[in-house]
Prior knowledge:
By secondary structure, this protein is an alpha/beta fold. It is 42% helix and 20% strand. The protein is built from eight helices and seven strands; from the N terminus they run H-H-H-E-H-E-H-E-H-E-H-E-H-E-E. The chain has helices spanning 10-20, 25-35, 46-58, 73-81, 95-108, 121-130, 149-159, 185-198, and strands spanning 63-67, 87-92, 114-118, 137-142, 160-169, 203-208, 214-219. It has a seven-stranded mixed sheet with strand order 3-2-1-4-5-7-6, with helices on both faces. Helix 5 links the parallel strand 2 and strand 3 (114-118). Helix 6 runs parallel beside helix 7 (149-159). It is globular and about 45 Å long.
Amino acid sequence: MTERTLQLTDQLSAYLYEASLREPDVLRRLRAETSAMRQASMQIGPIQGQLFALLVELVGARRCLEVGTFTGYSALAVALALPDDGTVVACDLSEEWTSIARRYWEEAGVAYKIDLRLAPGLKTLDGLLGEGSSDTFDFAFIDADKEEYEAYYERCLRLVRPGGLIAVDNTLWSGKVADPAVTDADTEAIRAFNEKVRDDERVTMSLLPVGDGVTLARRR
């Protein structure tokens, strides 16, 4: 019985990409452009993007939400997987970063599916709740300010429908969550978040060692 996830060597990681990745060219080029940026580590990997697209299809999503858009890779991966009447409400603060996203969304022909809202994430989420959008989203993705993870999660839990899915990035945080000597605010916030979701009876959950750690929480 194997109890530990297989360690990905460079050779095995290359094989994983070769054997499983179906990355459209527009996504590949967006990833390549973003990789040249100083903030490139903020972008999810293509394996994650492909996983999210599959999850969106599995839950039959039409209405999606993301907190933290950056240059738009995750929003694009999800939008490509949605039906023609699907929508992604994308929350971010940066006009500069999302201007890159808009170019690729337009090129991919899915810009009409993406409702970009440039404002603090909590303000946008509270606005959606105030508009009566509780229980209307099928899928939510959280990848923004780590100290606000619990607040984002609580609001997303109200916004997704029963049976809806929340995905949260960076929950293994480069392994720092497992090192008690690391006590910076972001690491402590992710530790607290992980414990909260583990014990949250409102959801069924799994923390996957994909990328920098992805937590999936399905609202009961």
